[in-house]
Known about the structure:
It is a single chain. The protein is mainly α. It has 16 helices and two strands. The protein has a single domain, classed as Orthogonal Bundle (Farnesyl Diphosphate Synthase). Helix content is 71%, strand content 1%. The two termini are 25 Å apart.
Amino acid sequence: MTRNAEFEGWVQAGQELLERYLQQHLPASTLAPQRLHEAMRYAVLEGGKRVRPLLALAAGELATAPLEPLIAVGASVELIHAYSLVHDDLPAMDNDILRRGKPTCHKQFNEALALLTGDTLQSLAFQWLSDPRLGLDPARQLQLVQQLALASGSRGMGGGQAMDLENTNQNPTLPELEAMHLKKTGALIRAAVLMGAHCGPPLEEKAQRHLAHYANCIGLAFQVVDDVLDAEADTSVLGKTAGKDAAANKTTYASTMGLSQARAFAQELLEDALRALSQLGPRAERLEQLAHFIVHRSH
Length: 299
């Protein structure tokens, strides 16, 4: 088995573990209120690359963390991501009709139910993360809850989305774009990495700094690649509407730097992330492979 095939096997195994957890722990659509539970499952299941949970698993491997809490942590992060997509797709935000190759939640159901779906997925993420059965020291578990809350709120993803809305029809500078995307996209990716590592024995302070730098680099690289793909990939490949940034007159890395320079910038961020990982030893291999996947993906 080649290294690439071995990595793909690891990805598939991780995705299957996560999918099983989500299937089992999301409320069944037969339970009242059935329509809301159906929408929650629709928004989360059968779609997405699960990059954030995989990052949590990989960081957990680095920190020799037990698998069970890592799956729960990854699933909690994925719920926050799914809720953000449901709300971002609403007419009041990005007004999109396609997500993960199927109609967006408000198109499949309705706007009011989509709002409630996002709200309840957010609540459920913290229910899972605070479950006493997680098997971690309570103080450490509380820190995980705080990490996810900070990454989701005004100082993280929520604040980044607000900045994105403010920048529509504006011309933010590259430093302003970076500040926005380190929150909007980067905060939850950073949280996934650091929370995964937090499930294991504490890393040395220097190792924590290297890991945080890696997380910041790949979080930003993820957005740069997203901007490039939005500009040059087809809707059928992306699974979401292509070209919507230009249609909404949003300033992106692709529009500001040009496609060639944006791709080069993503590669620079990858190399910076890999330099940080080189200080962490062989157990960082999965994080390295995921960084390559994030930057070289086609959708």
